[in-house]
TrEMBL record:
Name of this chain's protein: Upregulator of cell proliferation
GO terms of molecular function: GTP binding
Signal peptide: none
Superkingdom, natural source: Eukaryota
Provenance organism: Cyprinus carpio carpio
PROSITE patterns in alphabetical order: G_VLIG
Length: 1483
């Protein structure tokens, strides 16, 4: 390196040790480590220790804060009081050891340069130059980033290293100067209006520049000049002095002691002009000094003597005059040329190392032949030219379909797709050029960082030269009134395309990669590694182009794979927060980010930012726990209201797209506003607010901060309140305007779309420069306000509850947002897999909670219904009359309590789900109210269902009670007669034979029958006659038949309310049947037909009920039992065993089997919802995927037709088949049956044991049985006839009966288990389930709201039943649903998801048969959300189906086949399957 860092008497290691930099002598500090976001314990101006001093300095320097040299260090002394140690200016004569309380700022800077790697050195030098600090003279690499702009012969801009300038050097001879060089150098370079310190103190070689602005009255010097200051005594640094003497136009030598330094001066040989500067005290000493000079052999250009009479201003004026005279006729050298002189003097030049030189040569091989930049780009970087720009236009046209006119939409889209494919093929036909090959080679070498730096430096220089030449031509052309306008336009276009940087080479790589991926042609193995290479570059701090500003497009595959590679490289530390800046062109957006984060987005490389670039900032390990992320990704965007785009018709649209994209990608968006331009501010706000509204509508929660730049007024905070309120009102006005454009409610306020505080979300930042460039430093106030702004942003990130996303999630947001903004109606075009996944998870969770709710209430109702059914048994045995009306009231009240409790539990669960910091849950926040409404609707639905069922159960029980009274009278009469007969028979002289006993019993039996003969009742509506009408209403008839079957299956009596419920059911289905229209006459005939069927079914239901409950029939059923009991009593035989077995097998066995059947349904549902098969039923979308996949692989047209036209039937049968298929394997159903059998047998045994243990119960058989029944009155419905028959004429010993009863339970258990095992037919078992049918529960779960797409009839997949918007994942060609062209009678191939993005129109009954634009479909169907296809492959499934069965559909509908695009026929079954998997994201 060209300079010695510290003076010989300073121990460098001790200095570095004290500042904590000793470890970086070998392990160099990197720019990445310096820019890392860390948790700082220091305040803005004071470091807490010497070790944190360098980091505080670097942090302020990276933010271009001129106060970096004024920081202080607070340390604890022996008194434990905080003392401040400053790094401030000290006198030139003071050395480090003389003042241990201070550190010379140059010593700190020098130490940092010594510990920094070359790239950090470059950045430090650049930032110091922006602060107008003098920089250590490093030749020349570390100064190459410094680019200066000035006016000499016109406007000039160039790297300071390449600019030929006169060098004026200031040196000192002697140890105790009376004058400070640094002080007077600062005064020379400062105008009256601008005072700042450039040279901070005495030191080694520091350099600064004076650059004129082209105004004679203000410029100190008319031409640019470089100033060098050699720290210390030149006699100690002869090599450095020799270098300066050979490269300088003049050397200003400060020497007060000529006598002591006479020898040195006599031998002084200078090739440059020498200006000697001495101080004198009086006239005598002045004369003596002149005499000594005359005696010396010293050749001087000028001698300047400063005595006590000359003030500093006069002295500085003389110095300026002398410098100006010398500069006017001086030699000029660039720093690059000076480095060759340094080499000759044996000074080590930083660029002369092997790696740096090899990288330079490699960069020169690529750039040496560049003469005309546009021509070079066309020849060497062809892929990003015309083909890519054409692809971009075609992709947008595929989304907007504006040029389709009257063409068939699907044919037009196929043509566009073909054109894109051809352009991709054209790209693929280009061979990899040598320049790109060399570029890839350089990026993959160990010289990567040096190579990219050289490429940047060289390309920036070429761009500046090329632009300078073109701009000069443009100025000349403008001054010539005869100049052809075409020539001006041509020059304008050349200027616009004359930027060339690393981003253009990276862009070419992206197109190479996209092309190779499209063709599957990886001829160059290096191409596959490009994403990982680019990812590594991003980790090293290089920006990546997100949006190609020239083509206004994003290479999605490339960006996605780079981010995927980043994800792999950083996992598990891959969480990111995104910060973006938006604003009008040339308002300092890039500068704001550069200042805030210390980065280096391009701000002066020929033109403004085009497109968007993203850059990663590391978050330190200890700070990650606070920010809850590992990286901050910052996005710099091109300016809104760009002058280059303003001439284009769609410039506002372009700005909207850009704003929507970056707002959607961001956690925080900074809106940069230049206060001096109110019109531009208004336009910017309109664009930005539009973007925020869009994000609000799609579930994103944007955070916005406004940066008001150039607020120069010192009283801004006090005076700005009115302006803030006015600004807030403008935001509200813009929000309403944006809502109107998006066809949303115009009642929106700005605070409705994001959280906004007038004080907290506005930042007022003064102007960037303190004075007028080029000699103005960056305004300290600017840096400090930006630092406060940065702190505010970090505080917001610390407080946010939203989880950070990883790189893969970020890639998905880029994909979905970009695809969506290409459609005109963004809000209804947006489809994001992360949102879809979050919604799917929410739906799956809600379905689980919904089933838990339903299952709980099913269980409650089953027990309640069982309890009601047992009322008669308990009443008979306890002889206590139960008031059923009171029971109904009590049960309704209990049901309300249960529902209230379960509803609260469900609502709380939903609330907790949204409050938990689950990944991506915030994306579905706008669906929260839908699910709350669905939960409340579920409660109302279940409540209504339970109330009706309870009322029916009570009504049935009331009827049973009346019948039971008759039956009880019969039993009592029969018992009395039997007992009387036994007495008579026993009083006879002989024992009666079996025949005689039978005859005696038959007599009393016939008497009972005569006494109790009845006339069977008939249902009053059994004679309804209707005419059967054949209409096109099969679907409604089928649904009604299902409804009737469900009503008549339970073994209960007809309820007059059933027919009313049926009529309501028919009306509901008629409402949903809009096409074809059903007129009142047909509607009446349909209802008569259905009600006729219902009347017959209900009549049969009633007849069956009468048959079952006929008292005589019941009596006759147990005739044999009465006869057997009569004989046993007559012969006085023990009845214990028989009675116990009868009680278990006739009473409890049927009840146990009914119990099993009632509980199988919910268990079957649970089983179907568990494991992999549960995915099919987890959400409606997954269910649709399963159905469609089965249709695809079954390849059966009949099934497809059934799915399309009889969806409910098909779904129900499919579910039934799924259940049967699963439970036919490995005895799955039997396992459930045995489980419930064992459970209820266990309860039965426990009830018997409990009854036996109670003394007052076990002494009476009736009490014992009643207790057991009462214990199980919520589980088992005991048949009262069988129970009463078993208890009548029972003379058993209670104790023995109980023992026999317990042993009979075991026999019953085995018998029932054998019975269950013997029944192998699962389908038959499932059809016998009369309540809680699993197929109906599952159908209800996946059927949802039942709404269908108004265009293609695809079923809605939205979660819950009370959602506000219906949607479908895959829409169908309309011809599948029997739509045809009126003129030709051919089936329509158009797909509604394509039509809604087109300029086409539609008409139907809902439009009054008037034509209506497809884009405005929501005016007709406001509750439908039909998303345009973001990919032409999304509907490949239905395209495949339609193209394969086109003829069959036509035959079925008696129409002509559709005119299908040719590429549909090329879709394979596997492509169709892949489209399903991609659409439903199953992989």
């Amino acid at each position: 390196l060209f300079y010695y860092f510290l003076q010989p008497y300073i121990n460098i290691e001790s200095v570095l040790m004290e500042m904590g930099l000793h470890g970086h002598l070998r392990d160099k500090l990197t720019l990445k480590s310096v820019l890392e976001l860390g948790k700082s314990s220091d305040d803005d101006q004071t470091a807490h220790s010497f070790t944190s001093l360098p980091w505080l300095f670097l942090r302020k320097l990276m933010m271009v804060n001129s106060s970096a040299r004024s920081i202080k260090c607070a340390s604890k002394g022996n008194s434990e009081k905080c003392e401040e140690k400053s790094i401030n200016m000290i006198e030139e004569s003071t050395d480090f050891n003389d003042n241990q309380e201070s550190i010379n700022p140059l010593d700190l800077i020098t130490a940092l340069f010594h510990c920094a790697d070359p790239f950090l050195q470059q950045e430090m030098a650049l930032k110091m130059s922006m602060c107008q600090f003098a920089v250590p003279l490093l030749l020349p690499n570390s100064l190459r980033d410094i680019t200066k702009q000035f006016r000499f012969h016109g406007l000039e801009e160039n790297s300071i290293v390449l600019t030929d300038l006169p060098l004026i050097s200031f040196v000192r001879l002697g140890k105790n100067p009376n004058l400070s060089k640094s002080e007077f150098l600062n005064k020379i370079l400062s105008s009256k209006q601008q005072n700042y310190d450039t040279f901070i103190c005495n030191g080694l070689v520091e350099m600064s520049w004076y650059l004129p602005r082209g105004e004679k009255k203000i410029d100190i010097f008319k031409e640019p000049v470089a100033m060098a200051n050699l720290r210390g005594n030149i006699s100690d640094f002869e090599v450095q002095f020799a270098f300066l003497s050979q490269t300088s136009s003049a050397v200003f030598l400060f020497c007060d002691d000529l006598d002591s330094n006479q020898t040195f001066l006599n031998f002084l040989q200078l090739s440059s002009k020498l200006v000697l500067i001495c101080t004198t005290n009086d006239h005598t000493s002045r004369d003596n000094l002149k005499q000594r000079l005359a005696q010396m052999k010293l050749k001087t250009y000028s001698v300047i003597l400063k005595d006590g009479k000359m003030n500093d201003a006069e002295f500085v004026a003389k110095l300026k005059k002398t410098v100006a005279e010398i500069v006017a006729s001086s030699i000029k050298l660039s720093l690059e040329k000076m480095s060759m002189i340094a080499t000759d003097l044996g000074i080590q030049v930083d660029e002369n190392n092997t790696i740096c030189q090899n990288a330079k040569e490699r960069a020169e091989r690529i750039t040496r032949d560049i003469e005309n930049i546009p021509d070079y780009k066309m020849k060497e970087l062809p892929l990003q030219g015309k083909p890519w720009k054409e692809i971009s236009k075609l992709e947008k046209e595929m989304c907007r379909l504006k040029k389709a006119r009257k063409q068939n939409i699907e044919h037009y889209m196929s043509e566009l797709k073909c054109q894109i494919q051809n352009l991709r093929m054209e790209q693929g036909n280009h061979r990899m050029n040598e320049a790109i090959h060399q570029f890839i080679s350089g990026c993959c070498s160990n010289e990567q960082l040096y190579f990219l730096k050289w490429m940047k430096i060289t390309l920036d220089s070429l761009t500046r030269k090329h632009l300078s030449r073109l701009q000069e031509q443009y100025r000349d052309a403008c001054q010539n009134p005869k100049e052809d306008k075409e020539r001006l336009r041509e020059l304008d276009n050349q200027i616009a395309s004359s930027s060339l940087g690393i981003q253009h080479f990276m862009r070419e790589l992206s197109q190479l990669y996209e092309s190779a991926h499209f063709q599957g042609n990886w001829n160059h193995s290096s191409l596959k590694k490009l994403p990982e290479l680019c990812a590594q570059l991003m980790l090293n701090g290089f920006p990546l182009e997100l949006i190609d500003g020239d083509a206004s497009n994003i290479p999605l595959r490339w960006i996605g794979d780079v981010l995927s590679a980043l994800n792999k490289l950083t996992t598990p530390h891959n969480r990111i927060r995104v910060i973006t800046v938006l604003g009008v062109q040339s308002t300092g957006k890039s500068t704001l980010l550069n200042t805030m984060f210390g980065v280096q987005f391009a701000v002066s490389s020929g033109r403004c930012t085009r497109g968007a670039f993203m850059l990663l900032i590391d978050v330190s390990e200890e700070f990650r726990s606070e920010l809850l992320c590992d990286y901050i990704l910052i996005i710099d965007t091109e300016g809104l209201k760009s002058l280059e785009l303003a001439k284009l018709a769609d410039s506002y649209e372009h700005d909207n797209e850009l704003a929507t994209l970056v707002v959607g990608l961001s956690d925080i968006t900074i809106v940069n506003i230049a206060m001096e331009n109110a019109t531009e501010m208004k336009d910017t706000l309109q664009i930005v607010v539009h973007a925020f509204l869009r994000m609000k509508e799609v579930g994103k929660k944007p955070c916005c901060h406004f940066a008001h730049q150039n607020t120069a007024d010192v009283a801004v905070q006090d005076k700005i309140l009115r302006e803030r309120m006015s600004f807030f009102q403008q935001l509200d006005y813009m929000t309403q305007a944006a809502a109107k454009m998006e066809k949303k409610s115009n009642n929106y306020k700005f605070t409705d779309i994001l959280e906004y505080k007038i004080d907290g979300n506005n930042w007022y930042i003064p102007g960037l420069w303190l004075g007028t460039p080029p000699m103005a430093p960056v305004n300290t106030g600017y840096s400090e306000e930006v630092n406060k702004f940065k702190g505010g942003i970090l505080d917001i990130l610390k407080k946010t509850k939203l989880p950070a996303q990883d790189f893969m999630a970020f890639a998905e947001w880029i994909r979905s947002l970009w695809k969506s903004v290409q459609f005109e109606n963004f809000i209804f075009s947006f489809r994001n897999s992360l949102v879809a996944e979050a919604y799917s998870k929410l739906c799956a969770e809600f379905n689980t909670w919904e089933w838990a709710f339903k299952k709980h209430m099913i269980d409650w109702y089953t027990k309640s219904e069982t309890k009601i059914s047992n009322m008669g048994v308990i009443t008979e045995q306890s002889e206590t009359k139960v008031n059923l009306d009171r029971v109904l009231v009590a049960l309704k009240c209990e049901a309300d309590n249960e529902l209230e409790k379960e509803e609260k539990k469900l609502l709380d669960t939903i609330q907790q789900y949204f409050e938990n910091e689950l990944e991506h849950v915030h994306l579905v926040e706008n669906h929260k109210e839908d699910f709350f409404n669905s939960a409340r609707g579920l409660r109302r639905e279940v409540e209504m269902d339970i109330r009706i069922k309870l009322e029916n159960a009570i009504l049935i029980q009331k009827g049973i009670e009346k019948v039971e009274e008759i039956k009880q009278k019969q039993r009592d009469t029969l018992r009395d007669k039997v007992l009387s007969l036994i007495k008579v028979c026993r009083n006879r002289t002989h024992i009666l034979s079996e025949t005689e006993l039978n005859k005696e019993f038959e007599k009393i039996w016939n008497d009972i029958l005569k006494e109790n003969s009845f006339t069977k009742a008939r249902c009053g509506e059994g004679d309804i006659q209707t005419r059967l009408i054949q209409l096109a209403c099969d679907k409604i008839i089928y649904q009604s038949e299902t409804f009737i079957t469900n009503k008549t299956e339970p073994k209960s009596d007809y309820n007059s309310a059933d027919i009313q419920e049926l009529l309501c059911f028919i009306d509901k289905n008629l409402e949903s049947c809009k096409e074809p229209e059903i007129n009142p006459e047909i509607e009446a005939a349909l209802k008569i037909h259905i009600c006729g069927n219902a009347a017959r079914a209900f009549q049969k239901m009633h007849d069956d009920y009468i048959e079952r409950t006929d008292p005589l029939k019941s009596l006759e059923q147990f005739k044999d039992q009465w006869l057997a009991d009569f004989k046993d009593l007559y012969h006085q035989r023990d009845q214990c065993q028989n009675k116990a077995e009868m009680c278990t097998m006739k009473c409890f066995a049927p009840a146990v089997m009914e119990y099993i059947q009632k509980h199988l349904g919910p268990d079957i549902v649970d089983e179907m919802l568990s494991g992999e098969r549960g995915l099919d039923f987890s959400t409606r979308s997954f269910f649709q995927f399963s159905l469609l996949k089965k249709l695809l692989w079954d390849d059966d047209f009949t099934n497809i037709l059934e799915y399309v036209h009889n969806y409910e039937t098909y779904v129900t049968e499919w579910i039934s088949e799924k259940i049967t298929e699963h439970f036919s394997k490995k005895g799955a159903l039997l396992k459930l049956e045995i489980k419930h059998l064992n459970a209820i047998i266990k309860k039965l045994k426990e009830a018997a044991e409990s009854a036996q243990s109670k003394a007052n119960i076990c002494n009476n058989i009736s009490s014992f049985v009643t207790y057991v029944c009462r214990s199980l009155n919520k589980e088992l419905v005991i048949p009262s006839d069988a129970l009463n028959a078993s208890l009548a004429l029972n003379n058993s010993n209670p104790s023995e009966f109980i023992d026999c009863f317990k042993s009979s339970i075991e026999k019953m258990h085995k018998c029932l288990e054998d019975q269950l095992r013997d029944e192998k037919n699962v389908r038959h078992k499932l059809t016998k389930l009369s309540v809680n049918k699993p197929q109906q529960v599952l159908f209800s779960r996946v059927f949802g709201c039942g709404k269908k797409c108004p265009f293609c009839c695809a079923p809605c997949e939205a979660g819950g039943k009370k959602h506000t918007n219906h949607f479908v994942s895959i829409h169908r060609p309309q011809g599948i649903g029997n739509y045809s062209w009126i003129e030709t009678n051919t089936l329509v191939p158009d797909i509604c998801s394509s039509l809604v993005a087109s300029e086409m129109s539609f008409r139907c009954k809902d439009t009054g048969y008037q034509w209506h634009p497809n884009k405005e479909y929501r005016q007709i169907y406001p509750d439908w959300r039909i998303q345009p296809d973001t990919s032409i492959e999304a509907t490949d499934f239905w395209k495949y189906i339609f193209s394969k069965y086109n003829m069959k559909f036509a035959e079925r509908y008696r129409l002509k086949p559709a005119d299908i695009p040719a590429d549909w026929y090329r879709i394979s079954k596997y492509q169709a399957n892949k489209s399903l998997e991609d659409t439903f994201k199953t992989k």
